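Changelog note: in this version the structure field was regenerated for every chain. One regenerated record is shown below for reference.
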Amino acid sequence: MAYQNSTVPFEKMLLNFISNDDPMLSMLKWLCEKLMETEVQTKLGAEKSERVANRQGYRSGYRVRRFDTRMGTMYLMVPKIRNGGYIPFFVEAKKRSEAALMNVIQEAYVNGVSTRKIEKLTKTLGIESISRGQVSAIAKDLNEQVAAFRSRSLEATYPVLWVDALYEKIRDGHSVKNMAVLVVTGVNLEGRRDILALEPMYEESTATYNKLFENLKARGLEKVWLVISDAHKGLIKAVRESFVGCSWQRCKVHFMRNILAYISGRDKKYFAEKLKQIWLQPDYESARKYARSLMDEYELRYPTAVETLEEGLEDSLQFFNFKEIDHRKISSTNILERLNREIRRRTKVVGIFPSMDSYIRLVTSYMIEYSEDWSSSRSYINPEIVNAIQQKLLAA
């Protein structure tokens, strides 16, 4: 009798599942939610609303996440953790970017791209047969997510933008072109990072960067305090035209490379160590003073390097105007360099993309995941610091 009573709740649960349109999918969703709750409880060391002294963190509500399975698509309420973020272990194994990568490979097959180069990869992913119907079904779903992400509304103010470009081989008609992919990330007033744009262009120029920035403004962006990039002339001009009153910070890492190109191999390492001290000084005046002494010391030995340093020095020191922010975060485009490496890690598997759409689909799908991880992680810049700078700018 006791056994029968203990099974009543489970039997009722089964009856509830059976009454749904898709009983198996409903059961899987229920199981996933239970697994997430257990995983979060273990991670935090406490149950929901439980008050214990040794808990490792706190919850912060839920977020909806789509999860595609062989049984169908379900929408999970994923618990959010205040610090550190949380991604379910079973979602990590099957992210949307993997579906996008599979779609690129399938599209390559359908469009007649040689199978020899990607045969090994398709076997790894378990792709046995390819059809136009499969391509259309996967692409349609991904296209909706990608379009929504690329056209989503932006906040009015992003204090800091990082802008860079990487080059990818993309098939355009019957020819393969080396296209510039313009990438923009930003920090909002809460100090959180976000990926604002990823736009393939035929070239890097003032016109293409102006178009990039106009698209951002059309989506709601109005105010930017600081833009960090390399010294591409078209980019610099576009920043000045699109964001009047905005400061431009020349990436110190790119700048150092430009200078070191004029230093002999035997002196390069030694000179680089002395050169980097410019941007490690405690304030603007100290940096200028140290740079001046370095230029005086090497003016005769390396005149071109010193001339390059002198011409670009002022633009490379603009981060000192925001002394409240950790200079390592706003003096270079390192944040984008890491992102670009992650993009290339995915795209090098494909090599030459069969179309512009396939590239946008794959990379944007991955960027969506990256953006979600950033949104659930700790602030990149302390929001109190951002607010203090905003108040200072408003009072000026």
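Spot check on this record: The chain has 16 helices and seven strands. The longest helix spans residues 23-44.
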